[in-house]
# Entry
Amino acid sequence: MEELRRATLHSGFAFMDGAPVLKVPARRNPANQPMGHTASFAFEDCRTALYDLHKDPDQNAPYRDPVQEKRLEEEMVKVMRAYEAPPEAFTRLGIAC
# Structure
């Protein structure tokens, strides 16, 4: 109920044909970070986690690939913009909008 008490109405999105939507603040984890925030992940020095699913199907060993990370981030930004993601969604993910 507390989350609903803090909710507000958002004017909606283009695909909603003018219907407003309920905007509910993100939940917080025990470390008091919004859920999905990079600080809640167990990776010390990376905010993304790429896996080679053929070599590591259990996803035990993330690896770094700056070129792939940049490409995937750019694609994610395109999709988020297409679906009118609010600025705070970009902030929560640590990417520029």
